[in-house]
Amino acid sequence: MTVELFEKIPNNVNLSADKRLQRALEQWLPNYISWWKEMGPDQFQESDVYLRTAVSVESDGWAHFDYVKMPEYRWGIFLEPQVPGRTIGFGDHYGQPAWQEVPGEYRNTLRRIIVTQGDTEPASVEQQRMLGHTAPSLYDLRNLFQVNVEEGRHLWAMVYLLHSYFGKDGREEAEAMLERRSGDRDKPRILGAFNEPVKSWLDFYMFTMFTDRDGKFQLCALSESGFDPLSRTCKFMLTEEAHHMFVGETGVDRVVQRACELMKETGSNDPQAIVKAGGIPLDMVQRHLHLWFSLSEDLFGGEISSNAAEFFAAGLKGRYKEDGYSEHTGLNQFYEMPVPSEGGKIVMTQVPLRNAMNEVLRDGYVADCQRAVDKWNRTIERQLGERGADFKLALPSRRFHRQIGIYGMNAGNYFDPSGQPISAGEFESQRSKWLPTDSDREYLKQIMRPVTEPGKIAGWIAPPARGINGQQIEFEYVRHLPA
Ligand SMILES: [Fe+2]
Ligand SMILES: [Fe+2]
After folding, report:
1. What is the pLDDT of residue 2?
2. Which of 148, 161, 263, 365 is the most exposed place for a label (fewest CB within 10 A)?
3. C-alpha span between 204 and 211 (Å, rounded)
4. In sequence order, what are the beta bridge partners of 227?
5. Please, are residues 427 and 433 in contact by the beta-carbon 8 Å criterion?
6. Quick one: which of 305, 312, 306, 304 has its CA closest to 330?
7. What are the start-end ranges of the H helices in 40-137?
8. How far is the CA of 151 from the centre of ligand 2 (A)?
């Protein structure tokens, strides 16, 4: 597979051989750059950032690290190599050769899947655009920008598919990607969580922990797709996604560690004492965890879903690690699901497996999130073990604070964090205990002052365990900051 690294659009898809496609993408490029300058990181466009850039898809050396000004980042198109003789791994077309072209009958469905995935990429850049002004260290600032440019590249990945396989309407969809805006009342991004404000760095770590992790599961499900180009591009996106989740998981861990250090220093477990010491108390961390976990769970879609059944039947979207299942049609099987009934009581219900595919994917997601929460709790244990750790972080029940689906508040359902049905009034009366409050946000705004000296770190977070790409923590990860 040849890599065209020094073309206007770096790629490993032999773009120069398809002049029409190359021209179309080169026309999209300046529009993308205008979008980036308008909606990408506020200021910092002239800063030199120590970034990794994808230069191939080889597992041992796909990334190159160097200082780059973000608008000059080499956004490229990289697909994993084609697996000769690959067959469709699930659904009604199980065992047939994977599609190299879009099957006519699934054209609209497939386009919708690609647009929905693609839309999340620029959305997250927009959500995070002000965070550069309050970064706790140059290390964190660099990680933010790394995530941002790679989300930009993920947009390129989806736009490449739209341009090469969907003709005129694909090109129109690619334009529309640059026109919607996160949180905009008139032209919002497609999915809920991608219209929520990411105001503080605690939001950012929770977002990269929980929302990017939804991205991982969606990309895994799409990398099973019978549409081979989609499968190949998602596989490579996953290699980049790993770092985004690392930023979130370790970011929360460092906040937790710092809170514990301050509990020891002040000799108090009282959240107010931690606030007084300038840290983020664990109950505030828990409220943000509740929020971003529940918002991210909504991204998987309804628990009982005919769309999910259709995507699976058609061979467009598989399960997480489909290979690990012994049966791949999903027919004549059931998923036992707790479903709220008329009187609010929860009734165990047999749902045809294909209709429960969103929930199957969500199961994998919840387990992966639980693994990270366990790790954070081990940090608390390690820090506070001797004096008795009286606080444990926990995922709420998947019924808690849902906007959509059978547990959704839109259907009039309310649950406490343990999953017990409650009334809307009870939910409201507990809201400030369970979810971030205005005063949490005000406090976070107050303590999030930028720290720009190499090696220095804000007082509300512990330093990272190590630097990026073998560099020291003191390394100057971002140079030429805006005045
Ligand atoms: Fe992404
Ligand atoms: Fe991501």
Report:
1. 81
2. 365
3. 10
4. 99
5. no
6. 312
7. 107-127
8. 6
* C-alpha Rg value of the chain to the nearest Å: 23
Q: What is the pLDDT of residue 68?
A: 97
Query: For position 429, what pLDDT does the model report?
Result: 98
Using alpha carbons, list the distances in angstroms from residue 431 to 102, 193, 308, 400.
47, 19, 32, 11
**AA letter at 218:** Q
CA of 377 to the centre of ligand 1 (A): 28
pTM: 0.97
209 CA to centre of ligand 1 in angstroms? 13
Which pLDDT score, from 0 to 100, does residue 129 have? 98
pLDDT in tens, 240-261: 999 999 999 999 999 999 999 9
Residue recorded with tokens 């200021």: 43
Q: Distance between CA 377 and CA 373 in Å, rounded?
A: 6
Interacting residues of 252 by C-beta distance below 8 A, sequence separation 6+: 205, 206, 209, 285, 289, 372, 376
**Phi/psi class of residue 480: alpha, beta or left (left: φ > 0; alpha: ψ in -120 to 50)?**
left
Residue 351 has pLDDT above 80, yes or no: yes
Rounded CA-CA distance 154/132 in Å is: 21
pLDDT-derived band at 342 (thresholds 50, 70, 90) equals confident
Tokens of 335: 């998923």
* Coil/strand/helix, residue 335: strand
Ligand nearest to the CA of 152: 1
Ligand 2: centre distance to CA 54 (Å): 15
Separation of CA 213 and ligand 2 centre (Å) = 8
222's tokens: 């799409």
**Among all ligands shown, which has an atom nearest to the Cα of 147?**
2
3-state secondary structure of 193: helix
Which-ligand-closest: CA of 243?
Answer: 2
Distance 307 CA to ligand 1 centre (A): 22
What's the CATH fold of domain 24-479? Ribonucleotide Reductase, subunit A (1.10.620)
Q: Say which residue the tokens 């220095």 belong to.
A: 456
278 contact partners, CB below 8 Å, separation of at least 6: 262, 447, 459, 460
Backbone angles phi, psi at 338, to 5 degrees: -75, 115
59 pLDDT band, cuts 50/70/90, is confident
Ligand 1: centre distance to CA 264 (Å)? 38
